[in-house]
Amino acid sequence: MPKIVVQSCIICMRYFSKHSGMAPRCSSPGSKGFTLVELIVVITIMVAMMALAASMLRGGGRGQGLQAAVEMVDGMVQEARLDAMGKGTWSRLIIVSTPDDESRNMRTLGVMSKNTRTGKWHLVNRLQTLPAGFYVSPAYSTLLEGSKKARGEKSTARGFASRDGQDTVNLPGNRMTDIYFIEFDEEGRMSQPNAPTRLVVVAGSAGNGKEERPTPMVDGKPGLAGGIVIYPKGNISRLRTTEQVIPN
Q1: Keyword Transmembrane helix, does the record have it (predicted)?
Q2: Is the CB of residue 95 less than 8 Å from the CB of residue 138?
Q3: Backbone phi, then psi, for 197, in 5-degree steps?
Q4: pTM of the predicted structure, to 2 decimals
């Protein structure tokens, strides 16, 4: 039981003991105990305090989940950059776009590297998934997306045709899907897009690709969000204030 609940119960028991002239002991033949009303009041307070404590724990848990999600995105961006510099090739942080699978949509990330001999891209690690209830928001991020969406589908992201046409990834089960990505060159500089790029993590669901479902919403904006910004030279900064994360 949370400490605050225990302390509240002790205070209540002491109060009733003092004002009723009774010792807080169980009823037995020939002894006095608490009245039914007193017990009901104590139980009511306990239930209310436990509900409050549970709410506080849930809020703290979501805050920790957001921090873990932002740290995961930050770490994978750095991994992609270091992979490019270490191998002397291009590397990408990829974000999987699967509108028909909300459990993966904008929540599954990985690092891909370009083979300098064959010119083909391949995953350099296992795909990782953000903590439950969090996703990378296309609406509040600055992302590049593959050629399929650039052929005319409406999108909040910047459509383009990749220079090598490889804008998909093969998921487990031999299933090809579109991706968003950030690309680094052999010197660790961001080659695509060549502009400050925001990656914003939001609590909620990316939905089916047509409309995001952030939760909670506060004044028409996501109420729980965080992120990073990557600059063309490859350096990274955290977005620390609400105005930085969700600009007006």
Answers
A1: yes
A2: no
A3: -125, 125
A4: 0.69
3-state secondary structure of 236: strand
Contacts of 225 by beta carbon, 8 Å cutoff, 6+ apart: 66, 137, 140, 200, 201, 202, 203, 214, 245, 246
**Residue count (the chain):** 248
89-to-114, 146, 198, 232 alpha-carbon distances in Å: 6, 20, 23, 17
Measured CA to CA, the distance from residue 41 to residue 35 in angstroms comes to 10
Contact (CB, 8 A) for 206 and 135: yes
Residue range 129-163, pLDDT digits in tens: 999 999 999 889 886 654 444 333 433 444 333 44
Question: What's the N-to-C CA distance of the chain in angstroms?
Answer: 42
